[in-house]
Amino acid sequence: MDQSMMIEKVKERLPENRYNHVRGVVETAVALAEKFNVPAEKARIAAILHDVAKFSDREWMKSIIISENMDPLLLEYHAELWHAPVGAYVARTEFGVEDEDVLNAVKYHTTGRAGMSDLEKIIYIADLVEPNRKFTGVEELRQLQDHGLDVMMEASIKHTIEFLVSKNQPVYPDSLKCHQYFVQQK
Ligand code: DGI
Ligand code: FE
Ligand code: FE
Ligand code: FE
Fold first, then answer.
1. Residue 11 near residue 104, CB atoms below 8 Å
2. If I label 149, which of 74, 108, 125, 126 is the partner at 20 to 30 A Cα–Cα?
3. Topology annotation, domain 3-184
4. Could you report the predicted ipTM of this complex, rounded to two decimals?
5. Against a cut of 0.90, is the pTM above it?
6. What's the angle, vertex CA 42, arms to CA 39 and CA 45, rounded to 5?
7. Which residues contact 59 (CB under 8 A, 6 or more apart)?
8. Hey, CA dihedral for 92, 41, 24, 169, is it positive or negative?
9. Mutational test site, ligand 1, from 76, 80, 160, max ligand atoms within 8 Å of CB
């Protein structure tokens, strides 16, 4: 499927503000890809599709997690996490995406994981810092660009974990393992 068709189909599935977020993630992800020598077309496709399942039916997502043998632990955590792995499934089955790195960038965009590829990091970071995001500290995260992708990713996952802990929300193990991976590398 060509990219303009992908964008049209994503637009149909999302409310306007979420679609604007997707456009912001595309812009930020492509800029990061160019800066860090990752193929910009992969970043663009992953960004277009990263939230494709954000408004999918919960029971349907649950059935896909089970039938596709995804991590059963997902079902014990907040349903907000489900749109990422289910989005990768939709990208493959409805949008014809075959590139494993693109599919993993969608799959892990919410939690991160240990040993992320550069494309996965770019989508995770772009999702957090795209121009429509306004939270306290977002500008500091944006400015870490000049310190490299790993510094940005470590600060981003740390921000998410600290946010979740401050709200007494459970943190999914992949997020903790993602952070631990950067800490142990030093
Ligand atoms: O889909 P978006 O809103 O663009 O952003 P996202 O997919 O990164 O995150 C969706 C939500 O998931 C957000 O409210 C934060 C939450 N989240 C991220 N990591 C974890 C998490 N929630 C839990 N419970 N555990 C996590 O590790
Ligand atoms: Fe998301
Ligand atoms: Fe995110
Ligand atoms: Fe998003």
1. no
2. 74
3. Hypothetical protein af1432 (1.10.3210)
4. 0.90
5. yes
6. 150
7. none
8. positive
9. 80
